């Protein structure tokens, strides 16, 4: 899988084609695929009746016409809301995706609609979704084309030892900082990937040092969210593998003009 190849430089659509379509919707993901991304990234949670669905925030207020917590509503109730209602690219002057029947998608619907070989990074937004995601991965036979990540260690802990590629949690990344800067070896990490931002709480992370420290263990480093071509080129030069972008078209163009050694 390209997402685990230390020699690859994949471009990954962040929540699909988020700069141009409502995030974590089937429409956004399909736009990213049409652009030629190597993989997509999206977030999952479960509804009150146990349906695995795509949503970043713990509430639906920011991205839909509805309100309230994901975990307290049934999937049928959540699906009634317009998932394109609040999408805007001009500060709220226009809403080009409103009333176009964009809905919160189920994980199963996304898997069925996307290309059968497309790699995915799936971000667990809550530990409550771990069991449902594992069951869905097995049901669809996705073990060889998915990385499961989560900020909380409790999200990915239940998935260890099940043959899945996993991303480091935030506490795991914090533990890397000092050894990476001191060029100390990182011994036998349990995870296969880092999916991390270039900064944390306003402070830049030592991305080059982290990527270098991960190299002996063949742990790949994917950085989010990068929308500027120049920044993507700098990160690739620093030893990063993947770029996770809201605007994957611009990053794909940057990669086409980059000579890798």
Biggest sheet details = 9 strands, mixed
What is the CA-atom radius of gyration, in angstroms? Answer: 18 Å
Discrete helix count: 9
Q: Approximately how much helix is present in the residues?
A: 25-40%
Mean pLDDT: 95
Helix/strand/pairing class, anyone? alpha/beta
Strand content: 15-25%
> How are helices and strands ordered from N to C?
EHEEHHEHEHEHEEEHEHEH
The separation of the N and C termini measures 21 Å
Model regions low in confidence, pLDDT < 50 over at least 5 residues: none
Structure explained in plain terms:
By secondary structure, the chain is of the alpha/beta class. The chain is 29% helix and 16% strand. It contains nine helices and eleven strands. Strands 1, 2, 3, 4, 5, 6, 7, 10 and 11 form a nine-stranded mixed β-sheet that branches. It has a two-stranded antiparallel ribbon with strand order 8-9. A hairpin with a 5-residue loop joins strand 2 and strand 3. Helix 6 packs across helix 7. The longest helix is centred in the C-terminal third of the chain and has 12 residues, at 170-181.
């Amino acid at each position: 899988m390209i997402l685990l190849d230390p020699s690859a430089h994949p471009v990954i659509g962040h929540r699909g084609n988020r700069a141009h379509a409502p995030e974590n919707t089937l429409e956004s993901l399909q736009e990213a695929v049409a652009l030629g991304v190597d993989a997509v990234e999206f977030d999952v949670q479960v509804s009150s009746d146990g349906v695995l669905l795509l949503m970043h925030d713990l509430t639906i207020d920011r991205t839909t016409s509805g309100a309230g917590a994901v975990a307290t509503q049934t999937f049928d109730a959540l699906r009634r809301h317009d998932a394109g209602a609040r999408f805007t690219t001009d500060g709220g002057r226009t809403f080009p995706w409103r009333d176009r029947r964009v809905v919160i998608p189920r994980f199963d619907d996304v898997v069925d609609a996307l290309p059968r070989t497309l790699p995915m990074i799936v971000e667990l937004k809550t530990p409550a979704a771990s069991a449902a995601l594992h069951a869905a991965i097995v049901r669809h036979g996705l073990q060889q084309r998915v990385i499961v990540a989560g900020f909380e260690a409790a999200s990915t802990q239940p998935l260890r030892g099940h043959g899945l590629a996993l991303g480091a949690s935030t506490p795991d990344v914090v533990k890397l900082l000092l050894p990476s800067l001191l060029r100390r070896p990182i011994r036998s990490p349990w995870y296969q990937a880092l999916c991390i931002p270039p900064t944390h709480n306003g402070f830049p992370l030592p991305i080059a040092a982290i990527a270098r420290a991960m190299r002996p263990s063949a742990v790949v480093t994917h950085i989010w969210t990068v929308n500027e071509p120049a920044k993507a080129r700098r990160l690739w030069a620093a030893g990063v593998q993947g770029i996770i972008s809201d605007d994957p078209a611009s990053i794909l163009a940057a990669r086409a003009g980059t000579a890798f050694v």
